[in-house]
């Protein structure tokens, strides 16, 4: 028992260190919304500074102070040099930037101090005390006390002081902070300084116990990330509690690990943070982001068009070089680069197309490669069959990794994948029983139908096989980019809420991306494993996966050729060969990290992205007549036979009764009843905050609601948004929510294409030119978008963008169309056109239209009936004339003057409505 208590106290001490780290992560998240993946690296760097100081003969207390100040300085520098230029970037981009910092610090420390752990002196008292019968040294208690004290101090500072309030203001409303006379940059810098200090403090406190070593960068970071998530990335006390729980659990597992049951899993404690991360995110996540989620711009995407005139000569030159021209050492460097390019392609799919960041690509792929290797090495399976089974094994792994992505997004998802990579590393790849350790698995020499292509004997053949596979995967990805499935993935990356409103199964699109990218990563990992007769898994660690993210972003993560460009940065690849040859030795990783930072700051679309943009602009200058618009690669055809509004046949009825939505104490929609039939227009009016948008959210499944919503008798409550959309209930959004990464035509295609597994696979293998037909073709005519199909939404005027948002909803061929303030910001002419359009959609198309509008004149003149809301409840439901005269509506919304002025102008009426 006393042993269990002793382990609990030791666990609390390491929990205290995790807590210090977690506090720093929260401080950064509060100020910049970023998850700092370099936090562990700052801690370890401070540890190395302490080691270096001691080695120089500096007294330990001074060295400790310098090390902590180094953390502070690093925090300030990161904010100054990286976060300030990226302040408006997406959280994903910021997370990638912190990965760059991680790589720079890791590579810098490795260059200076090597990879062996370095020992530092104990600077805390080592005398022992007995607590509840358990003997522990005082240093552990001091660590715990420091953590608890700092957590309490931070809690008070961020709640009670002007600095703390200013920090909250930086993340909530930077302009408001400016009016208070505070500089947001200085507040952010102060927070980064605190975070750096906290990281350094934990690194320095840890150093005497474990020594200073590079792997601590993740072993410290992961529990801290888990604890910070436990504290919802905002609560200091909760994060501290989480950290202590993790520390104690890990410590007790180490203690009970001596028992026969746990003896076979010596690394189980290291997996605890990952398990906690999964549980937290799956329990707390949301399948769709909330209304206030702001989508930021992600790196640009290529067209995916496969141009034989470019591909064939490039492949021919590569074959020529590999087979005849290059010396062997260059061939092997080329092989490394080409294999890396395959793994990076898995990230082009996942990050580029689907917008999901994974830090576990090599671990996922490695698992499949391990299956293949063991089947060949131990069970003597033929290679092709073993490869197929290894790749098949990647499918469930992809699903497991993808599942958290269904309920979380952005940088938080990256935390899950980093946790997975670390867990796989400690549970699988570091377990000699599975991988053979440093000896590896005896997979022999690969051969297919008598064709030997092992790298040891036939390096050129191996390189050619890798090249062939890279070209095949690259063409497949290009085809995917132009396919319906690809468009759906991109729509999810651009805007999950909008994608779901058009019937896209967001979870399905994400899972498909994870599965397909896992398969590609597995292919790459198998090629890594089978390079030598003994397949080694010692380097399948999280750092390598981070390296592939680095390569993908530098090359251009939205572009297939970007993978080859990024692959040159592979250790032992072409870039490394060049760097070696010019005498820079092992500087490649450091160069990669610096390049990544420069890329995300100055060139977010990567080498290929910016290169293509320059070629395009040069073409435009030289051949203005021929030049096409930036999105013209997304050209789609319009079915010339289609064009008339689809005949709807039967009358459909949307019946709503007792519909209620509660947000805590606020009842946003309060027992609303109405019916809406095909061909009718129901206007919904009410003051700001009356619950109009929440009504649409509830009808379309974006917020949980009580009551009943039926379409032709079928109950819709409880059905997810994309299903309701497929049943004919289609909404638009106040803020448009167009897919900015897709052309106008592709925006319409996402709405109109129906896809099955067969068409998805078919379009990747043999893509066809997409065609807008049925309702989508009719919408193109109705909305006059024929000339704009190839344009990017960003190139359209504001009025055209509004029209595109409505036409995209109409392209779904809705039974019920729910329009949320479609006239907002339109000029008078466009408003008149919209009025006529809404009537045509009802009368000619037979659509039931629910129209929320603050333009009272418009809504009164176009609607058959009006539903007036106030505080979520219906105040009137009658004809426009009756509602205009309704005393309650006049009091709460219209005002006496405007109601009396039955012929009031748009402007006066709208002013009163605001
Ligand atoms: N996710 C949410 N969590 C908590 N409260 C919410 C949420 N969404 C809306 N509300 C609250 O519900 C009420 C209704 O808001 P809603 O946006 O539906 O009104 P509205 O009539 O559409 O307003 P507006 O005309 O300004 O668009 C408001 O009090 C709002 O603050």
TrEMBL record:
What's one Pfam family here? Answer: BCA_ABC_TP_C
Organism superkingdom: Bacteria
Subcellular location(s): the record lists:
Cell membrane
Q: Give the way it sits in the membrane.
A: Multi-pass membrane protein
* Keyword line: ATP-binding, Cell membrane, Membrane, Nucleotide-binding, Transmembrane, Transmembrane helix, Transport
Which parts of the chain span the membrane according to its record? 7-28, 34-51, 63-83, 95-113, 134-158, 190-208, 220-248, 268-285, 306-326, 332-352, 383-406, 413-432, 462-481, 502-528, 548-569, 581-602
Limits of the ABC transporter domain: 654-896
Q: Residue ranges of region Disordered?
A: 895-914
Task: Tell me where it mainly resides.
Answer: membrane
Checking InterPro entries in the record gives: AAA+_ATPase, ABC_AA/LPS_Transport, ABC_transp_permease, ABC_transporter-like_ATP-bd, ABC_transporter-like_CS, BCA_ABC_TP_C, LivM-like, P-loop_NTPase
SUPFAM superfamilies, alphabetized: P-loop containing nucleoside triphosphate hydrolases (SSF52540)
**PANTHER family given for it?**
ABC TRANSPORTER ATP-BINDING PROTEIN, CONSERVED COMPONENT OF ABC TRANSPORTER FOR NATURAL AMINO ACIDS-RELATED
Q: What is this protein called?
A: Branched-chain amino acid ABC transporter permease/ATP-binding protein
- What is the species of this protein? Yinghuangia aomiensis
Traced from the root, the source organism's taxonomic lineage reads: Bacteria, Bacillati, Actinomycetota, Actinomycetes, Kitasatosporales
